[in-house]
Every structure is written in C-alpha cells, then in structure tokens.
Model the fold of this input.
Amino acid sequence: MRVALSYYVTNGISVALGLALISAAVHYFLGPVAGATASVGVLVCAPPDLAAPRRGKFYTMLPAPFLGLPLFFAVQVLHARPLELGLLLVPATFLAFLAMAWGKRGIPIAIAVMFSMIFSMATPAQPDWRLAWVNTWHFGLGAGLYIVWAVLANSALNARYRVQFTADVLFALAALMRTQARQFCAPSETDDVREVSAPLLGQLLRDQAALADQLQAARDIVLESPRTPRRQQLAGMLMIALEMRDHLVATELDLEALIVHPGGAQVLREMRLIMEELAGETAALADALLLGRQPEPPLDRRPLLASIRMPQDEGPGADGRMGPTPALLARGMANRIGHLNDDVLRLTSLARGDSAPDLAVVRAGWKMFVSPTDWSLAPFFKVWRWDAPPLRHAIRAMLAIAAGYGIALALPWGSHDYWILLTIVVVLRGSLSQTLERRNHRVAGTLLGCVLASALLSAHPSALALLVCVTAAQAVAHGFAIRRYLITAVAATVLGLVQAHMLNTGMAPTFALFERIADTLIGAGLAWAFCYVLPSWERHQLPALVSRTLRAQARHARLALGLGQLRAADDTPELAWRLARREAYDSLSALVQATQRSISEPRAVRPPLAPLEYLQAHSYQLLAQLSAVKSMLVLRRDRLTPADIEGPLERTAERIEKSLTAPLDEAALGPMSDIAPAMPSAGGPISLPDPFESDVSPWLLRRLDFATRIALQLREDATRVLQSTRSSS
Done:
C-alpha cells in the first residue's frame, strides 16, 4: 500500500498518462506511424520528468528535447550510412554524458539525449531527408506536447507530492529509530560490545545517508512557497522532523556505559520498547497522511520514561575520578528519548490541526533550504580536468558506445543494433558498484521482459491494446527507475520491444527472443568491461570528501556552541547554524556512500576501510555530543549558569575548529597538545548533580569535554585515511 501511494508511483502514472493521451491524439489525427513516432518524443522527455518543485520545472524539462531533436533528425538522415552514423554517435555520446557534471540534475538529461539517438535508430531507415524531416516533426510534436503536460501535471500534483514527500521522510525517520533501538540491547557474556555494535553503526550511517537524501528532496518541494495553511502545516512537520534527527542521534550518548553495566539490561529493554513504539507511531502518522485520514492521538510516554530507574551505584570510576553514576546516565538517556516523544506529540498535533506551525521557522526554511533551479555553466567549465570523474565517465561511455556499435554492425542479425547501445546506456554508471548492480538487474529484467513481450506480441494485439501495454509499461518503468531497477528493467524491456514493434508496423511483426537476450548480454558485458577504462576509483575522491567532512564538522561545532541562542530573549531561528547542520549531515552522507561504493571495487584499489569506519563513527559521535549541547542550550537554558559555561563554550569551539582545520599531513599525526581539552574541571573530581533537580551546567561541561576529545580523534582518523590513501596510490 505504501508503494502504491508513494510519490514515485504517482509520478510514473502521470508520465504514462501523458504518453497515452499524446500518442492517442497524434494517432487519431495523423495516423499510427505518426502516433508511434510522437510517443518516442514523449519517452525521450520522460527521464527528467520527476516529482519536482513547480518553480523551474519548465527549464528542467527543456534541455532534453532541445538537444535531442537535432540528434534525432541527424540519425534519421544517416540511418542507412553506418560509417557516418557512427561518426555522429561517438562524439554525441561524449557530449551527452558531460551532463553528469551537473550531478543528479544532469543524469536524466544525459539519458534523454542518448534515448533520442537510440530510439531514432529503432525506426525504419528513411529513403530521403524529407521523410526523415516528417518523422522528426512528429517526434518534436510529441516532445513539445509532453513538456506542456509535464509542467501542468507537476503543478496539479504539487499538493499531493508535498504530502507524499513528508510521509517518506517520516518513514525514513521511523526506520532510523528502529535501527537505533536495536542498539539498546545488552550483549551476552561472550560478546564484545564493539563487535556487536559495529554492524549496527554501519546500518545507522546508511540509514542516516538515506534520510539525508530524502530530506533534501522533501525540502525542495515541501518548503517551496509555504503560503497556504496546509503547506505551512506540512512544512512545519518537516522542520520538526529535522529536529527529531538531532534528538535521535543524541540518544546513543552514554549507551555503551549502560550496556556493560550489570543492571542495565532491563532498563535498556524498556527504552528499546519505547523507541520502537515511537517509531511505529511515526510510521502510522505517515500512513495517515498518505490515506488522507485523521491520525490517532499519540500516547505521551514521558511518565513511563520518568519511571525508568536503575539501582544507585555511587562511587569513583575506574580512573579514581567521580563521574556520573549509571542511574544518572539512565535518567539522562530517558530524558533524551523523551525529546523524541515530545517531537512525535508535536508532529501528530500539527497533523491533526490541534496546533499551528512555527511560521518563523517555516519561512526561514523556505528561504535557506530550497535548492536552486536555474542552470549554471560553472559545472561545465570545472569538468575539464583529467582527474574529473564526469570527464572520465564521458570518455568511458563514448568508447563503450563505439565498441558496442562496431559489434552490432558485425553481428549476423544486425537488424536491431540499437538494443546493445540501449543496454550500455542504462547499465553504465559512474562507479563500479552501481554498474554491477545495474548489470545484474538489466540481464535478469531483459530475460523476463523478453518472455512477457514475446507472449504479448504472439497474440497479435490491436493497436489500442498495444497502446495500453506501452502506457502500463512506461508507468512501471519510470516509477521504479530509482527505487527498484529490476522492476524497471522488466517493464522497460516490454516497453522497448513493443515500441519498436509499433514503429516497424508491417515490417517486423515479431522479434527473435534469443537475439535480444544476446544483445543484452553483449551490452551489459561491454558496460562492465569499460568500467575499468579510465576508472574513477573512490580512493581518488576520498581526500576531498574527508576535507569536506572536517570543514563541515568544524563549522557546525562553531555555530552550535555559539552564545547567540544562550543570550537571545526568544527562540529566533539560527539560520547559519541550520545550514551548517545540514552540511555536516550531507558531507557525512557523501562519505558513507563513497565508502559503500568502494566495497565493490578491486581489492588492489580499495581504500582503507578500517580508518574510514572510525572516521565515520567519530563524526557521528561528534554530531551526537553537539546535538546534546544544543538541546541543553535551547530547551534547558533556564537551568544553566551562564557565567560557568560561556568561557568553556567559546574555548571548546576554538579547540574543535583548530583541530579539524589543521593541516592533515603525516607530521601532524598524533595528539595536539596545544589544543588538547582543558576544561576547568579536568584536573579534579567532576561533580555531576541530578540533571532533573538542579543546575545542568556540569553536564554541559562534560559534553564539551567529550566533544573536544572526539574532534581530536576525528582529526587523527582523517590523517590516517589520507596516509593510507597515498600509500595505496
């Protein structure tokens, strides 16, 4: 049900409906061949048509037909001349794949431009340029009509997209909460705590990366022009979700101390159960949003959290210093879980209409967090470096297409040379891990799709039945292209074969099943092989990603520990800190994703995984410590003594920034004595009172001490990563 109600399925249905209407209209007025050719124009414009903000949608759609139309015509003219056609395909492929320089926005454009040439090859060769021009006119008609459809449909579905993206963020949060709750489990006597928690930490980081991607996609749509009460309601929920991520990260603080304590098992079980219940309520709220129902009132679990107790265990720690007892740590953790409970209550209250959103925060988010929609030439000029991944990928794709085209001409059947090229385009990706995944799904999907298409065409369906089939296949192929490519591969195979059959009406009523499978295997094999040509191994990208992570963490620490919120008379939004927090999560997400991709690379070029894992873990821990500090500054500032914490806040911010921005070289490896943590209480016993009954300033100082030490560890991790990367190079 959640898949059926998701935004990507809605978007797929919208694309398919546009294809059906435009193809049927052109078919009715201009004939079946014109309708089939117009549908090719629709298919070429479809890849960039994703759920997007209304602002800039037209300019997002425009590059595909603008670049594809002349290429479609050129292929039509050169179709009967293989050599000249090859001389067009190879450089055009290079230029098309340079669109990858624009990142996620450029990938659909590159695919669309390649589709314009490949689908033109699927049409019958024209005897002269006049007929080629007529075909191109029909192609352009379909593309132009579809741009109008895409802009109007995206605007009409905007309200639904806002709900669906908000629900997806809540689902991602619920998944992250469940993963976090799995850590609240005491190991057996034979287990090492770190061995048990390591796989969960990896899953947490992957869930955090997925949530970061989902949050940015949701920001762009949900925070765009929140002028109506309903838009403000959803935008307010999204801003609360951002705060929930911070509170969720902070729940793992002091967890290891409770896990190893003999009396911690029962307390951890109770906390885990509450977190799982909160995750269930978050997912239930998302379901209610998708179904348009009034969510049920949630249960306030604050009293239950307050009742969680551990036996008092006063006394000095292992180093002889007084520290917080496990009982106090358990109460502090219960309070941090209580912040999550409060967030779920606020979310549900907003969704039910029982409370109003914080409009100041919503307006700030609208101005600061929505991605730009205009096209800049800066990425194109920056790509002309030999080590630039987009340039290497463009060269790699060009060579793969050249090899595939040469093989297609040499094959004895040769009547559908475009199929090998289509397989290369959809399989070849910028990294080996993505290409391997696409290769396997493409081969399996083609096998299933060929069988389905063969069964369909053997029944000799009518033109209307074929149009319905193409529409359904397009809806599935487009909707699942990002989420589950195996389903897309099956649907796209059916779509491509039926579309080719319609374009060749009267000439090719059937197709050779085994030839299509052979073409797919050849194309997938070429895409795989050319991944090793001018490869962009992840280890070459790591220095930049590590530097970005350290800079982001340093800036986030400086702003999170700023005194502005402590001295403010109200809760005025801190825009600079919110932007810094986003960059801290996004940079860590990029590092986690690069590390995951590197696992599929050859062992000889694989980056050092152990120091990378430590770096990611310490980055996550630093975010957790700073989140706890920020929560105390914002939520409990009435229980703080400014004179005791202002100096340590400033000194800690300076020390963290200095440690994370210091030059990362071999000589710098090791402790930095000039910036080592030096809290006022570090030399003597730490007196930590009950945080629920007295001043919490000592607890804040403890967090600052931990944050400084973790920053030092993070810097050493980064230096080791760079050293290992240089030595392996």
